[in-house]
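Summary of Year 1 activities. Much of the first year was spent building the evaluation harness for sequence design. The harness presents a backbone, in tokenized form, and records the residue chosen at every position. We chose the following record to illustrate the format because it has been used consistently in internal testing since the harness was completed.
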């Protein structure tokens, strides 16, 4: 039995390779689909294949912005007079722009194409790889932005961000596989 290298470059390469595998699994679920089918919702869920790719693209871009810019890249500010409880209950008199944009991530909007959604994902993936390869230390941290789902005072390292992006991508690739099989019986994996 040989032991794997534990150098920072080997770890970085391994994490990026695992992320590339998860991305490929997600992309396979939309192969051969036209725009209408990529936007179809074949289950009781509001999820569609194009929307999942859009969401993963936005999530990855947001977290890599966090790596380069810190918590200011992820603002979860609420409109004046709106509380997190209002937002959770669906009773907010006004919704923050970030929440509205997040809702749009999960569906194909008028004028969006499968090719466009995949092209945007490809660009974000290429940028992410450049950032991760350029970061001197995967242990470098930033404080998490204030939000009820983040631990107060918590910090995430570049490594933690990368593993989070990998986990989210793999999770949504699984969702997408179920949606694709529901649409036309094709198993993408």
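For this record, the design step produced the sequence shown next.
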């Amino acid at each position: 039995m040989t032991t794997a290298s534990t150098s920072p470059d080997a770890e970085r390469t391994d994490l990026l390779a695992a992320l590339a595998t998860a991305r490929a699994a997600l992309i396979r679920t939309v192969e051969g689909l036209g725009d209408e089918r990529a936007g179809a919702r074949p289950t009781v869920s509001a999820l569609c294949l194009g929307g999942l790719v859009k969401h993963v693209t936005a999530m990855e871009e947001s977290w890599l912005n966090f790596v380069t810019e810190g918590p200011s890249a992820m603002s979860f500010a609420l409109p004046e007079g709106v509380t997190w409880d209002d937002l959770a209950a669906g009773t907010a008199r006004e919704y923050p722009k970030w929440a509205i944009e997040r809702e749009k991530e999960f569906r194909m909007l008028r004028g969006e194409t499968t090719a466009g959604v995949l092209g945007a994902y490809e660009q974000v993936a290429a940028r992410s790889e450049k950032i991760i390869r350029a970061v001197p230390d995967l242990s470098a941290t930033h404080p998490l932005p204030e939000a009820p789902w983040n631990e107060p005072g918590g910090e995430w390292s570049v490594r933690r961000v990368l593993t989070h992006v990998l986990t989210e991508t793999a999770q949504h690739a699984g969702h997408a596989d179920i949606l694709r099989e529901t649409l036309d019986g094709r198993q993408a994996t």
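Strands lie at 141-143, 155-157. Quantitative recovery figures across the full test set are reported in Table 2.
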